[in-house]
Amino acid sequence: MRVTPSPVVDYYVMHKEYDLLVASTRKSEIVTVLVEATKSSSDDELEVDFSNSFAYHAASDLVKEIQFEEVEEGIKTRILRK
Hints:
82 residues; three-stranded antiparallel beta sheet; alpha+beta
């Protein structure tokens, strides 16, 4: 299992059987709990890969890419079909 948080905004994608895009102001706390829970319940470790862009399955036949960019006004977010 892998989680891909953005280093600049409070979004992340969790990869397993299904992709889950989550927006939360408590990203760090959620990722910490997921890492600890995975350690205690599995032999596998949760991979944490920080990235400003990542692809995810919005539906079984629809892949999207989300991109984050720091700009002067704040964070620019783009969601594209792949």
